[in-house]
Amino acid sequence: MTDALRAEWTKLRTVPGTVWLLLAVVAATMALGLGADAAANCPSGGCQLDPARTSLTGIYLSQAVVAVLAAATIGSEYSSGLMRVTLTATPRRTTVLAAKAVILTALVLAAGTVAVLGSVLAGGLILPAHGFTAAHGYLPLSLRDGPVLRAATGSVLYLILITLLSLGIATAVRDAAAGIGGVLGLLYLIPIIAGIASPHWQRHLHQIAPMTAGLAIQATTSLRSMPISPWAGLGVLAAWAAAALLAAALLLQLRDA
Amino acid sequence: MRSGTVTGGIISAYQSEIGEGPDRFAQLLRAEWTKFRTIRGWLAGMIIAAVVTVGIAALDHASCGGIVVPGGSVTTGQGCSSPVGPGGEAVTDSAYLVHQPLAGNGSITVRLTSLTGQSAGAASAGTTALQPWSKAGIIIKASTRPGSAYAAVMVTGARRVRMQYDYTGDIAGPPGPVSPDSPRWLRLTRSGDTVTGYESADGTRWHVVGTVRLAGLPATALAGLFAASPAGSESAASSSISGSSGGSGMNLATAIFDHVSLSGGQPGQTWAGDDVGGNAGAPTGTGFHQAGGTFSVTGSGDIAPDVPAAPGGGGGFAIEHTLLGIFGALVAVIVVAAMFMTAEYRRGLIKVTLAASPRRGRVLAAKAVVVGSVSFLAGLAGSVAALLAGEHLLRSNGNFIMPVSTLTEVRVVAGTAALTAVTAILALAVGALLRSGAAAVTLVISVVVLPYLLENTVLPAGAADWVLRITPVAGFAIQQSLPQYPQVAASYTPANGYFPLAPWAGFAVLCGYAALALAVAVIMLRRRDA
Questions:
Q1: In Å, how far from its chain's centre is CA A227?
Q2: What pLDDT does B216 receive?
Q3: In this complex, is the C-beta atom of A177 within 8 Å of any C-beta atom belonging to chain B?
């Protein structure tokens, strides 16, 4: 396993795209988060906005970036034929998948932590000027606050789970572009479709969709009206990621590379 | 195959016996079409695109204007159908009308001395609830049937004289306060199908506000006084947030008229009062009092186009509601179109392609034509089927679908197909630029699908407005079937289906992005080694 890990680390490290994608994770999270912070406004009458969620809006975009990183990691091996070399060197195929998962998790953990900390810090600095003040019932955004800490750590975990989901799907379809299309379709389409479903089904869709359920972890206000509680929501996403990885491992074992 | 021949010691180079092929764009198209159709996954992707569009429309379980309250329970809306006006559009036609028959040509003249408003809820009685579009004045109307033709001159809550006709027509007159000190004189004159509205400050010097033709006005129409006040707009509701008044934001408007004169009326007729529209939700308190020559008319509702997003709007659905599944189609089409380009790079096929057709710009053009046409067909098949299936499903669940002209319907459906095609070309061009399928798919989905999701969920209204102006999502404006009416106060937001840009302007933004990407892709394809 150590050798497999080192091999995967070398492969990822020596591709220039990896660094750019990790920087893009930070940039995308921060940029969209800053935009949402700047656009948010909480007038005196009170508002429905969740400050933690607003400053972490960027996760909507950066999840696409980590999905690319994961899908490309496996997809490029198939498109270039490197997969055959990899599997010759490491005949235990699940080890290859596990090694990729571990390395990707470590990278996304690092980039995601920087991105989320930056976003929360920016939110703490910007939002008070837009009406999110104690007078309107908002505490300053700080990681010392339990729910905010949950939203922040949960957002990093969310990015990691999306990475694993994407790795699983891309391995199953053996193509980066088709894999990424499948992942983003799964993430973005269900919330859009939920708009036309009946309220009953809408609630169920939000409970089982990987994105809406997973992002429940970002909620710090009005938890009672959420379709699913924060940690249960992240659990739903974890189940999706586990199912995708399991399917990928099975297909990897059963099929020719 | 024939090897080079040696004749008389001179070695002549090999020349194929096959003649030089025609170097036409048609050949290139055929080559690209062959590449496209022989990959099963790509054809399957296009079929999936069409099927997903219909499948999502079939998931629609909306029921009759039902709305969710924060507790999670569902209430059924009151408006499950709306009357249809002379222009074929859904309308709201409820007001209190004091009328007499008007046989043939004639005119009605009144002096309006006051227009005041009240909230219909008993709890907050006494608060001024005059809406900007509360209205009272005189009207000539075909009948009391909701949706019948009319022309009216009125004073609105915004203190302005206006002439309105056939629900959508709205002509502004001069502004000015209305009070017992400075009353307004209003006059409507019918001559055949033509109705002319006048206003005056003193009853002697009259100004024409407008002249309109009402097709199908019967020989004997109605002439009379009316008052109406639409339900409170959201801004008005939030400003009085402390008192959550009952009566679901219903409002009353009371107008005082005197100097009422009708020429062309039938002798012996008296004034009759009617709650036109007769909606069950009409609040108590409507009616009229006549004391000598003075009339006090109190009414609720609105005579205007039906806007589902308005506080008093019916629960009708716009036709584009059935086309939400196009997002699923777009994801499939983006993946196929990007791979159509990037797959050439994977196995080095691009070198063969460019050797066979050295003019690189034409290769990209041929690919764009092929993938654009296939995507257009997939989008068209999907959206036509989704519209038919979706409308059927909505109607069978008791919903009302906002009627639109055939031309609009064609624009929405063909526009959705065109949207699919242009998005595919954008994905192809981005694929040619990035030469990586995963990156191209992610980038295009992030600019075409993600902003729509964000503006509908997390972005504040101001930011959402800009997203829909400057990102490729602006193209979805082509799906907007209902116009905005300035004379109806409503939240014309993207979430309610109203885009900041006009349909073709929004579509042009998307086309601009695709054209720019394609142009840069051609330049880069020429400059870079394959």
A1: 20
A2: 80
A3: yes
SS (H, E, C) B350-364: HHHHHHHCCCHHHHH
Share of chain B above pLDDT 90, in %: 30
Q: What is the ipTM of this complex?
A: 0.85
Helix (H) or strand (E) holding B109: strand B95-119
- The closest of A170, A210, A61 to B442, measured between CA atoms, is A61
CB proximity under 8 Å: B 442-481 to A = 442, 445-446, 449-450, 452-454, 456-460, 462-463
Cβ contact (<8 Å) for A49 and B460?
yes
* B263 DSSP 8-state letter: E
Query: Which residues in chain B have Cβ-Cβ distances shorter than 8 Å to A37?
Result: none
pLDDT digits (tens, 9 = 90+) for B90-143: 888 888 899 898 888 899 999 988 888 877 654 444 455 678 888 899 999 988
CA distance A103 to chain B (A): 20
A166: closest chain B residue by CA: B438
CB of A153 within 8 A of CB of A213? no
Domain range for A16: 2-254
Full-model pTM: 0.84
Helices A59-80 + B450-457 axis angle, to 10: 160
At residue B148, the 3 state secondary structure works out as coil
Using alpha carbons only, how large is chain B's radius of gyration in Å? 31
pLDDT surpassing 70 at residue B247? no
Name the helix (H) or strand (E) containing A74.
helix A59-80
The domain tally of chain A equals 1
